[in-house]
Amino acid sequence: MKLFKPQNNVLPGFGPTLGFTLFYLSLIVLIPLSALIFRTAGLTWGEFISTVTAPRVMASYRVTFGSAIIAALINVVFGVLVAWVLVRYRFFGRRIVDALVDLPFALPTAVTGITLATIYSSNGWVGRFLEPLGIKIAFTPLGIILAMTFIGLPFVVRTVQPVIEEIEVELEEAATCLGANRWQTLQLVIFPMLLPSILTGFALSFARGVGEYGSIIFIAGNMPMISEITPLMIITKLEQFDYQGATAIACVMLLSSFLILLVVNLLQRWSRRYAE
User: Fold this and answer.
1) What whole-number distance in Å separates Cα of residue 143 and Cα of residue 150?
2) Mind listing the pLDDT tens digit for each residue in 138-149?
3) Contact at 8 Å (CB) between 119 and 126?
4) What is the mean pLDDT of the chain?
5) Which pTM does this prediction carry?
């Protein structure tokens, strides 16, 4: 006696679907990552350590990961505010603002970098007013943070926005009727429901910033030990035909990103349990 009756589905069964999924992931993700690791395996342990801990490389780690974390935190604050305004308020030009959020997705990274460098340079539209105040953005680490913030904002907004749409206004009204003020309603009712999506948006924004290259090199200045990002170090190694050195640095970036994403996923699991 069969426990489960076969269903007539448009898609193929579990076996073919799973096989195609594993094949596709292996072709797109696992095989390139394996090639990266195997290429690095040609180095001895001492050569690997000396390559990935060189002073110039270590400085690029600090610039890249530090800027990515700062940009992701900025995007969390303002991305949640933008998502809240787009969902909870109706105003003239709302659809235009909603469309502008996706602009960093559509712009080529080189166009983004050139535009930001032009606007925030010493003679740019914004830079000419900031530089007399002692605020120099273009060709400094601040420019890197600005570029990462620009490209990472949509990840936070589009992750948090659907969750805000699902939050019923009646919950806030009930909290108000029970005597909660605005801060208590935000802290005890809204924030726990938004926390998993906020952490997801943070992780996506951070990962996007760490891997960004095109929009940063135009505004960073690319000064060694000051404003040189790790992806540029990898490109420099490749231009010098030091393929093993480039893959060694790439492996460190890969491992670091995996560890940070693992921590964020653990926090997401905890936040979901807390919200429930």
Assistant:
1) 11
2) 889 999 999 999
3) yes
4) 85
5) 0.84
Handedness of CA 187, 188, 190, 194 (dihedral sign): positive
DSSP for 158-208 reads HHHHHHHHHS-HHHHHHHHHTT--HHHHIIIIIHHHHHHHHHHHHHHHHHH
Sign, CA dihedral 157-161-167-172, equals positive
Q: CA of 60: how far to CAs of 56, 99, 244, 257, in Å? A: 6, 34, 18, 15
CA distance 6 to 153: 46
Decide which of 1.10.3720.10, 3.40.50.1970, 3.40.50.11540, 3.30.2350.10 is the CATH code for 32-167+195-275. 1.10.3720.10
Q: What is the largest CA-CA distance in the chain?
A: 83
Q: How far apart are CA 214 and CA 113, in angstroms?
A: 7
